């Protein structure tokens, strides 16, 4: 029999399994063997109504065949043995001798019996093998081997033994070729067979054998029935319910249906089963297990299923136990009203739906291993439930718990979000313990008021606890959180509020939200809160935790406002670490006594103190001890007015804010404050009470008023970085002060307000560079000051008010501003007096006097009061002379000589306002005030000890704002009295500046001493001060100064040491009151200014010279050998020179200047006798004219002449309306301006005249040579004063008039030459013109290379490449008109600058050696645009040369038109080519296009030709042959222009040459042109 393979084996297994049932329990089936497509046997199941039950034996037919074959076999047949293992099943084949031939062998193959092995228990387990036998040669031993006897077959091994244990019987099956399975042997699994190894049987043929192990269970395709245990197992669910037969007998129903859905249609009805076990199934549909049909069900065990539908196990009253290993989600009311259910155990499930266990009122404990989401009311209506344990779940929805009032304990291992944004239930009144090992988040209001009796909360790790999650749980006594994310706003609000005690432990969290623990343990006897570590803490997080006594925080984030508001029981606060603390962070702890901050960021303003106290947010008024180890800034008002502070320790902080410790400290004062390297802001410790303050560090910055008015007994400052103004002003009870190594002690730093509050007697200052103004003012008990090191500067009033000062040790190099206590120290007084001692000397009035004499110019005068007999005498001279030959400019010289005034009283008015107390400039050693006192002593000593010949006295007046003083006049011998007055009575006032007060005192002194010469010297810095606001106008004292001058007394101001930048303002202020201002910017300058002021008072004189109206003053010519001068006008508008003399008596002084005679209206100059000044020139001594000098006079005669040119035209062809061009050139090229009718520039002028016209040039200098030339007079015969020619020269004599008469004559018939303009050549009438072939060039014709130009050759301005109106300084980038950005490369360098200005430029045209040069423009589409526009594009009747229509750059012939306006512009030079001599000297024209610099063209032809009417025929239209030409056109053009030429040039052209054709107007009446054609010269 062939071997079975592949699909046959699978089919066999299935058939064997199926037939086994038939064998066991009867049936109408049989197996048939049929032939398959491969020739191998195929087994199928066939109907057999005669099939019998019971045991089966070997087929008799097969036995007979075997015997026959054996009888005829004579082959040797030894014993046979064959064994082979198949993964736990060993197949052993054996036969006695004589059964198989020698060399026989077997092939055994296990067929796929999976169908048998995995089918239901009712089908048993099977093993199938294909056994084949072969002879020695490999031949197949067919169905019956040719021997006697049978082969023993044994199946053994672990798999066989296991099958035996689980079955009641084994059956050996044989399948022959007909496919019918035969039972070879039945082997009961009794004790004997179970004890044997394996199972065995005898085989009579080579075929497929199998062993089937049958159990006691009935196995069907829907499942099985176990009669012994009354267990119905359903493996295939069906609405037909083929298992209905076993319902009444079943005590247990088992569903093992794989993924099949369990519905109410699939299950038996009316069962009495007490147990339901679901091993596997798909979803359990809604109402699947109806209480109507399962009335006795007591337990449900679910191993694995899909989702459990709505009311799937609804109302199972008898159910007491539910065990679920794994299921999907549970639908709404899935186990609803299972009222006797006592225990629920769920290993793993999906989501729990609404009211899943509602009405399960007997359940006291429910355990869920893992589940999905707990939906709304998922744990609802379980009135007896006391304990809920969930190992792991997803989210717990809002209202997940309801009507579970006896639930006391909830334990959750791991879950997602709890609450889903709202409360998890409303009826958790019995809940006392909540334990959550881990959760993602606890949502907003999750347990809010739902668990009012909750006592213990334990949370392991939580992602975050949201707003109000546990709010209102007032009975909580213990709260433990191992770690969590953010704790939201009011998360534990009122937690434990009514508990007897509250303990809260938070291991670590991120942020604590606003009011998170507000009122926690508020009414408890004791509240303990421990937070190991957290991020930020929000506003009022622990507000009103009234029983909280101490708190330790370790935060990485910031602390919010009022986090402990209302924590009245808090006594100790420790902050191990935190970020910044907000404003008012710690207010409300009225019982707080100790604060320790180990490390934090910035401490916010008003952190512990407030000015606006509100209930619960009061200042920490009981605070006694503050320790800050390391922090950022301490905010303003942080500890303000905390009057119980006894100890403040700040080891390190970056800054202390304004008013941070204002008025802080107990009555006895905090013991000590030590600060290093921080910034102390303004008023930080204002009015604080601290016994000892020690401040040090280079980074220490103490700002303005930082400790102002504080009570400090001992103060030490060391190595301070910066100390602000008034930092310690007004200190009280100060006993010792030590300052070491400080750069600057700023203004008013230690100033005492109340002298009685300062008890410092000795002040030691070491290594202080700068001491500011008022620094130690009013230290009245100070006796000794020791300033060691290099102190550079002591400011104004730094030690004023130190009335007990006896000793001051200070270096001589220290710069001193004013302090009143200093000048009482002899050493400093001596130093001040020596500053400017011996710097002043009065002028010696008895110096010998010398007379002065004039230099005796043309005219001179002497002063009417000249004298050299006594002090006070003066001398004057004035003289004048003409400085040019025309006598139009006059030189004037004034000499002056003066002496000193013999009697003078001085009133020194001293500015003693506060601004004078400082040091004015960086290089000054002493204050302005000391310098002023020193100079007063210097001046007073000199004046009072001068010779008896000098009558001089001195008096003083001082002023501030209202304070002032004045002395009497001191005379000779009263030097000591003046010294006492200066040191004792001239003091600096602490006041604003009021000039009027000091000037009023000076006015009284003037009036009291009337009749004497007096001078007021006003000393000030010119910077009045009025409390930082605008100075009242009356404070400037202008009225008082005016009154002094009205008394005949001058006021001189001396500006003392004013900075350069402020001088203009100071000088302007002084000019309001002073006649003269002397300014200084440094000490030396101040001394000299005082000296100059006194010298000026003794020697000042003013001379005023008024210029005569016949002259104008050349202001640049005025020079003074000494003194100063000003040029102005008097009331009549006449020019004046005011010459001020001073300080240099007994010397000759000169003033010189130049006057220009005014010309008349006709530009000539008047003649006669001229005064050089208007009236006399007076000399004034400040109050009176003491001398005067008359004016010198200068005579002037006529020196000018005139030139007149007239024009007359005669002849029948002469035009009496034509304007002829004239040009006048003078030999004096310096003559420019208007002279009569003409405007000259550089000695040249041009004009036009027609018949009967004339011009007159007036006022030319006598002896001036001139040349007059007439132009554009072609075809006229010209005479000038009867001499033939167009030019006339001569000379103008003084007082004479030269007349030049030009007469032009033209006559002839109508065929004669030309009109008003034109030239020689063949005219349109066909007759020769003067310049035609054979005509001689007039003798006068020359060019610019051979002499003066002549009228026949029109002279033009020289125009090189630059041309008129061109800017050549820069060459801008070319406009992109050639080829975009390549334009700059395409245009030749010589023309790039011009092209950049106008991109219409096409070429440049010049005639070498003539000066002729013009741009040539090209405007296609508007060819004649430049006929009347200039290069700049502006309208211009002259225009500029341009391309004729059709011309182009690079064409074979380019036509260029140019005007011949009056024969002088543009193509005027082209006219000259009608003369062969001109062409011989200028044979080439230079023509360069913007793209080609090679532009030498030879003049080829010159002719006159008209522009013909368009309809004209048979004529040479020369102007049409332009642009690109073919060879025929080119040759025709060349032939005609050569034939038309006035003369033979010897130049011709061939096709391929380039031509230019220049044309200009010759005769407007006949539209005739002069044409010049040139050929490009070969390179």
Helix and strand arrangement:
Elements (H helix, E strand, L loop, with lengths): L5 H20 L3 E7 L5 E7 L12 H12 L8 E6 L4 E6 L9 E6 L3 H4 L7 E10 L16 E6 L1 H8 L3 E7 L5 E8 L2 H5 L3 E5 L4 E7 L3 E3 L2 E4 L4 E4 L17 E5 L18 E6 L18 E4 L18 E6 L16 E6 L16 E6 L8 E2 L6 E6 L8 E2 L6 E10 L14 E10 L13 E10 L12 E10 L13 E8 L17 E8 L14 E7 L17 E6 L16 E4 L27 E4 L2 E4 L12 E4 L2 E4 L13 E7 L2 E2 L8 E8 L4 E2 L8 E8 L3 E2 L12 E10 L16 E10 L12 E5 L4 E2 L12 E3 L5 E2 L9 H8 L25 E4 L11 E9 L6 E10 L4 E9 L16 H17 L6 E9 L4 E3 L8 H10 L10 H14 L5 E7 L17 H9 L3 E6 L7 H9 L4 E4 L3 H17 L1 E6 L4 E10 L3 E6 L5 E7 L7 E9 L10 E4 L5 E4 L4 E5 L3 E4 L3 E11 L9 E7 ...
Parallel strand pairs: 14-15, 15-16, 16-17, 17-18, 18-19, 19-20, 20-22, 21-23, 22-24, 24-25, 25-26, 26-27, 27-28, 28-29, 29-30, 30-31, 31-32, 32-33, 33-35, 34-36, 36-38, 37-39, 38-40, 39-41, 40-42, 41-43, 43-44, 44-45, 44-46, 45-47, 46-48, 52-53, 52-55, 55-56, 56-57, 67-77, 81-84
Antiparallel strand pairs: 1-2, 3-4, 4-7, 5-6, 6-11, 7-10, 8-9, 8-11, 12-13, 13-14, 49-50, 50-51, 51-62, 53-54, 58-61, 58-64, 59-62, 60-61, 63-66, 64-65, 67-72, 68-71, 68-73, 69-70, 73-76, 74-75, 74-77, 78-79, 78-82, 80-81, 82-83, 83-85, 84-85
Helix pairs in contact: 7-8, 9-10
């Amino acid at each position: 029999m062939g071997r079975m393979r592949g699909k046959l084996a699978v089919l066999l297994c299935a058939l064997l399994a199926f037939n086994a049932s038939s064998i066991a329990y009867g049936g109408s089936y049989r197996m048939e063997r049929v032939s398959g497509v491969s020739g191998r046997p195929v087994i199928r199941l066939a109907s057999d109504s005669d099939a019998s039950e019971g045991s089966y034996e070997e087929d008799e037919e097969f036995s007979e065949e075997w015997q026959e074959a054996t009888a005829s076999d004579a082959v040797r047949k030894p014993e046979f043995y064959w064994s082979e293992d198949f993964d736990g099943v060993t197949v052993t084949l054996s036969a006695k001798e004589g059964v198989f031939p020698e060399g026989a062998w077997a092939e055994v193959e296990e067929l796929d019996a999976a169908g048998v092995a995995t089918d239901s228990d009712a089908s048993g387990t099977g093993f199938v093998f294909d056994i084949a036998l072969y002879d020695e040669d490999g031949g197949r031993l067919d169905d019956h081997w040719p021997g006697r006897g049978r082969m023993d077959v044994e199946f053994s091994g672990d798999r066989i033994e296991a099958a035996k244990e689980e079955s009641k019987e084994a059956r050996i099956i044989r399948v022959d070729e007909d496919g019918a399975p035969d039972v070879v042997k039945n082997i009961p699994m009794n004790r004997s067979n179970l004890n044997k190894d394996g199972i065995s049987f005898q085989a009579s043929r080579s075929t497929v054998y199998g062993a089937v192990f049958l159990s006691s269970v009935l196995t069907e395709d829907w499942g099985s029935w176990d009669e012994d245990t009354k267990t119905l197992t359903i493996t295939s669910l069906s609405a037909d319910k083929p298992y209905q037969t076993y319902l009444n007998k079943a005590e247990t129903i088992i569903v093992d249906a794989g993924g099949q859905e369990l519905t109410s249609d699939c299950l038996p009805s009316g069962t009495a089963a007490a147990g339901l076990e679901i091993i596997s199934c798909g979803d359990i549909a809604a109402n699947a297990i109806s209480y109507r049909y399962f009335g006795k069900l007591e337990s449900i065990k679910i191993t694995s299923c899909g989702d459990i539908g709505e009311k799937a196990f609804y109302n199972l009253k008898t159910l007491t136990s539910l065990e679920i290993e794994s299921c999907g989600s549970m639908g709404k009311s899935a186990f609803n009203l299972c009222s006797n259910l006592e225990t629920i155990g769920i290993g793993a499930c999906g989501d729990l739906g609404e009211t899943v266990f509602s009405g399960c009122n007997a359940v006291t404990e429910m355990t869920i291993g893992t589940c999905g989401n707990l939906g709304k009311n998922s744990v609802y209506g379980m009135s007896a439930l006391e304990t809920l344990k969930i190992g792991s779940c997803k989210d717990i929805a809002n209202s997940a718990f309801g009507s579970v009032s006896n639930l006391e304990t909830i334990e959750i291992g791991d879950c997602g979000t709890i609450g889903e944004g709202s409360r998890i239930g409303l009826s958790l009144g019995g809940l006392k313990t909540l334990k959550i090992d881990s959760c993602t988040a606890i949502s907003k209001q999750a347990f809010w008021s739902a668990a009012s009796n909750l006592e213990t909360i334990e949370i392991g790790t939580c992602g975050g606890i949201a707003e109000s999650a546990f709010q209102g749980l007032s009975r909580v006594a213990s709260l433990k959180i191992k770690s969590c994310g953010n704790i939201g706003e009011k998360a534990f609000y009122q937690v434990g509020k009514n508990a007897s005690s509250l303990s809260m432990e938070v291991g670590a969290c991120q942020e604590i939200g606003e009011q998170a623990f507000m009122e926690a343990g508020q009414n408890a006897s004791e509240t303990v809160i421990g937070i190991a570590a957290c991020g930020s803490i929000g506003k009022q997080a622990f507000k009103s935790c009234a029983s909280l006594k101490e708190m330790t925080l370790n935060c990485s984030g910031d602390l919010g406002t009022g986090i402990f508001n209302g924590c009245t029981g808090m006594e100790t606060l420790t902050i191990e670490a935190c970020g910044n603390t907000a404003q008012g962070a710690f207010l409300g702890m009225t019982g707080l006594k100790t604060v320790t901050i180990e490390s934090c960021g910035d401490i916010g303003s008003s952190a512990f103190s407030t000015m606006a106290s509100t209930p619960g947010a009061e200042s920490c008024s009981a605070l006694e001890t503050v320790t800050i180890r390391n922090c950022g800034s301490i905010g303003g008002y942080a500890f303000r007015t905390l009057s119980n502070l006894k100890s403040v320790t700040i080891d390190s902080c970056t800054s202390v804010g304004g008013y941070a410790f204002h008025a802080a400290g107990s009555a006895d004062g905090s013991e000590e404050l030590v600060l290093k390297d921080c910034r102390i802001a303004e008023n930080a410790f204002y009015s604080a009470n601290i016994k000892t303050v020690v401040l040090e560090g280079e980074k220490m910055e103490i700002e303005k008023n930082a400790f102002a008015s504080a009570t400090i007994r001992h103060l030490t400052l060391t190595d301070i970085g910066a100390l602000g103004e008034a930092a310690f002003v007004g200190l009280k009870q100060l006993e010792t002060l030590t300052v070491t190594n400080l750069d600057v002690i700023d203004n008013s730093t230690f100033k005492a307000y109340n002298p009685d509050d300062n008890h410092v007697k000795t002040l030691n200052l070491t290594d202080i560079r700068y001491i500011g103004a008022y620094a130690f003012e009013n230290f009245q008990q100070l006796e000794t000051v020791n300033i060691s090191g290099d102190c550079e500067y002591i400011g104004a009033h730094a030690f004023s008010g130190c009335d007990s000062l006896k000793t001051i040790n200070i270096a001589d190099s220290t710069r001193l501003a004013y302090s009143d206590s200093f000048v009482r120290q002899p050493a400093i007084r001596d130093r001040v007096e020596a500053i400017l001692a011996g710097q002043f000397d009065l002028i010696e009035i008895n110096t010998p006097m010398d007379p002065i004499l004039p230099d005796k110019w043309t005219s001179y005068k002497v002063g009417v009061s000249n004298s050299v007999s006594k002090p006070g005498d003066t001398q004057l001279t004035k003289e004048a002379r003409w400085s040019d030959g025309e006598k139009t400019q006059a030189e004037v010289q004034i000499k002056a000589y003066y002496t000193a005034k013999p009697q003078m009283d001085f009133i020194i008015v001293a500015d003693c306002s506060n601004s004078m107390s400082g040091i004015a400039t960086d290089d000054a050693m002493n204050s302005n005030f000391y310098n002023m006192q020193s100079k007063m002593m210097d001046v007073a000593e000199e004046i009072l000890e001068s010779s008896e010949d000098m009558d001089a006295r001195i008096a003083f007046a001082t002023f501030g704002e209202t304070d002032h003083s004045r002395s009497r006049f001191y005379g000779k011998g009263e030097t000591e009295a003046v010294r006492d007055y200066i040191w004792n009575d001239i003091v600096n006032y602490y006041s604003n500046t009021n000039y009027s007060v000091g000037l009023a005192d000076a006015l009284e002194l003037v009036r009291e001493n009337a009749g004497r010469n007096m001078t007021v010297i006003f000393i000030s810095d010119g910077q009045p001060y009025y409390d930082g606001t605008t100075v009242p106008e009356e404070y400037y004292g202008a009225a008082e100064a005016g009154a002094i001058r009205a008394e005949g007394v001058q006021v001189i101001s001396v500006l003392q040491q004013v900075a350069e930048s402020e001088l203009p303002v100071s000088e302007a202020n002084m000019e309001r009151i002073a006649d003269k201002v002397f300014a200084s910017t440094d000490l030396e300058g101040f001394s000299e200014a005082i000296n100059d002021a006194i010298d000026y008072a003794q020697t000042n004189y003013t001379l005023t010279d008024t210029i005569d109206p016949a002259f104008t003053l050349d202001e640049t010519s005025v020079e003074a050998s000494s003194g100063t001068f000003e040029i102005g006008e008097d009331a009549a508008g006449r020019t004046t020179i005011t010459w001020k003399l001073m300080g240099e008596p007994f010397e000759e002084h000169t003033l010189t200047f130049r006057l220009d005679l005014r010309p008349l209206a006709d530009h000539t100059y008047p003649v006669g006798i001229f005064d050089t000044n208007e009236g006399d020139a007076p000399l004034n001594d400040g109050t009176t004219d003491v001398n005067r000098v008359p004016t010198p006079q200068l005579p002037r005669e006529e020196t000018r002449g005139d030139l007149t040119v007239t024009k007359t035209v005669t002849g029948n062809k002469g035009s009496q309306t034509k304007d002829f061009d004239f040009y006048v050139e003078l030999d004096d090229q310096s003559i420019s301006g208007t002279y009569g009718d003409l405007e000259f520039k550089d000695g040249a002028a041009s004009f036009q005249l027609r018949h009967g016209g004339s011009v007159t040039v007036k006022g030319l200098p006598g002896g001036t040579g001139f040349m007059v030339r007439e132009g554009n007079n072609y075809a006229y015969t010209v005479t000038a004063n009867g001499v033939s020619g167009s030019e006339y020269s001569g000379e103008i004599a003084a007082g004479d008039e030269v007349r030049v008469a030009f007469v032009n004559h033209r006559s002839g018939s109508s065929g004669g030459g030309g009109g008003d303009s034109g030239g020689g050549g063949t005219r349109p009438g066909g007759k020769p013109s003067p310049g035609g072939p054979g005509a001689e060039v007039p003798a006068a014709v020359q060019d610019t290379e051979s002499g003066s130009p002549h009228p026949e050759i029109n002279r033009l301005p020289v125009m090189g490449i630059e041309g008129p109106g061109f800017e050549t300084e820069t060459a801008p980038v070319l406009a992109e008109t050639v080829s975009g950005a390549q334009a700059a490369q395409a245009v030749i360098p010589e023309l790039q600058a011009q092209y950049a200005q106008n991109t219409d430029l096409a070429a440049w045209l010049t005639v070498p050696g003539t000066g002729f040069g013009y741009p040539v423009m090209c405007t296609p589409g508007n060819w004649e645009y430049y006929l009347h526009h200039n290069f700049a594009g502006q309208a211009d009747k002259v225009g500029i040369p341009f391309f004729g229509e059709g011309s182009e750059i690079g064409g074979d012939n380019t036509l260029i038109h140019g005007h011949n306006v009056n024969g002088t512009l543009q193509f005027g030079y082209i006219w000259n080519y009608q003369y062969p001599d001109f062409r011989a000297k200028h044979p080439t024209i230079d023509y360069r296009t913007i793209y080609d610099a090679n532009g030498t063209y030879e003049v080829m032809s010159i002719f006159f030709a008209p522009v013909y009417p368009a309809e004209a025929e048979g004529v040479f239209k020369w102007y049409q042959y332009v642009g690109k030409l073919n060879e025929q056109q080119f040759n025709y053009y060349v032939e005609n222009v050569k034939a038309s030429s006035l003369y033979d040039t010897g130049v011709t052209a061939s096709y391929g040459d380039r031509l230019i054709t220049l044309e200009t107007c010759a005769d407007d009446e006949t539209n005739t042109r002069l044409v010049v054609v040139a050929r490009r010269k070969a390179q």
